[in-house]
């Protein structure tokens, strides 16, 4: 016998499964968290949620010290060891370990930018980028240097800054011995090899590699 839902086309092999399914229509939430306002219709979901309060992480990686609260999260983590990337882009050769990462990548093809700033016209494809952008309005700088008083809005900028203390220069030129702490500095350096001069004067034929040189040129000859 098949137990059919009167509200949709679903069918179930037991009445218990049908009753549980009916809760999705009634929106009745049987399980209420006693620590916060969270509620749900399944005991298994409540069990997982409670781990956010207890800190329990029963799923452990056998390759490293990583552990987590949800089995699906461990499956995703294991791919960082195996190199498996089952989610593939239909537009290019890109592949990823999670479906959510692939969805973000696809936006580079569609141009979709669903995350919008409510202070200005800025929009972006990643929620984390919007969070970073909002700090330009709030002035928040949560990342602090442990060596000096420097602070900044993004973790990436902090890592770049820390290289001023360690003298680390991971970005290396393939044409000469030049190396630097910032990828932007390397891109600018490479212009010396390619001969490209992206900054062009709107008043004459002058062009240059550095924006600072263009500023000086404009002040000297066209101001």
Describe the structure.
It is built from eight helices and 16 strands. Helices cover 43% and strands 14% of the residues. By secondary structure, it is an alpha+beta fold. The model has no long low-confidence stretch (mean pLDDT 89). Among the domains are: 3-54, Double Stranded RNA Binding Domain, CATH 3.30.160; 143-194, Double Stranded RNA Binding Domain. The chain starts with a strand and ends with a helix. The strands form eight sheets. The chain has a two-stranded antiparallel sheet with strand order 1-2. The chain has a two-stranded antiparallel ribbon with strand order 3-4.
Quick rundown:
The chain is α+β, with helices and mostly antiparallel strands.
Global outline: elongated
**What is the makeup of the main sheet?**
2 strands, antiparallel
What's the alpha carbon Rg, rounded to whole Å?
27 Å
CATH class of the domain at 3-54: Alpha Beta
Determine the number of helices (DSSP H or I, runs of at least 4 residues): 8
What is the CATH topology descriptor of the domain at 3-54?
Double Stranded RNA Binding Domain
SSE order: EEHEEHEEHEEHEEHEEHEEHEEH
> How many strands in all?
16
CATH-derived architecture of the domain at 3-54: 2-Layer Sandwich
- Please bin the fraction of helical residues: 40-55%
Strand content: 5-15%
pLDDT < 50 stretches: none
The CATH homologous superfamily of the domain at 3-54: Classic Zinc Finger
| First-to-last CA distance | 87 Å
The helix/strand class is alpha+beta
